[in-house]
Every structure is written in structure tokens, then in C-alpha cells.
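anyone seen this seq b4? input:
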Amino acid sequence: MASLRYDPYEHIDCDAWLALDEAERRWQVVRSHGQQRIRLPSETMHATIHVIVENQIALGDAFPAKGVLLRLMSQGLDRHEAIHAIGSVLSKTLFTAMNEQSHDGNLNEDYVEKLKTLSAESWRKQAL
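predicted toks r here
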């Protein structure tokens, strides 16, 4: 098993991250939040969304999440906030998909389009 101490404020070693199994990734996220004394209403859901976003970032140029993360950080968000901003788009996309009887499009395509329009300002407004 690869050695990694996850810190959402620091860029991850993509190879080390991807070498971990999903349970270890979730545990790393939960541990880091606990060390920072961040209380979570749903630890499992929060960690799962973090892991999915980190997995997408670790894909590098194969998926737009890394570019979105860097763009959000250039707009003033710290890395952890940027992960939450991306995670909020992911969560809304999943929520909508689960609550609709049918979906007329590609969920991944819809998600990517929403990521393209995500900004630090739009995320801050919706987070209030």
C-alpha cells in the first residue's frame, strides 16, 4: 500500500493517491478533517465526494477537474474550498439524476459543462 498523508490544502501526489484503494482514500479524508477539527454532518458522504473530486483531479488532463481546481484557486479559493466547490457541482448533478424519472442527456457531459461555468464568486454566493 502506498504511503500518503492527505491534506486537502496541499496538492496530492496523484500516483500515490491512485495507488490507494477507495476505502483508504475515504479514511484519509476523514482523518484529515478530524485532525483539523472539522465537524461533518455526514462523514461518509462528505468523504466520498472529496474522494471522487480528488480522483478526478488525479486524472490530470484526462478530465477537466484539475484545470477547474487551478482556476478556482487563481480566483482566490484555497485548495480545500475549491474541492468543495467542485464537489457541490458533483453533488447537485447526482441529486438531480437520482430524483428525475428519466434523463435526456449524458450526466458526465452535463457535469463538465457546469464545471466550466463554476467560479469562485458563483460558489461563494451559493454557499451563503
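Residues 89 and 114 are 7 Å apart (CA to CA). The two ends are 40 Å apart (CA to CA). kinda curious what u guys think
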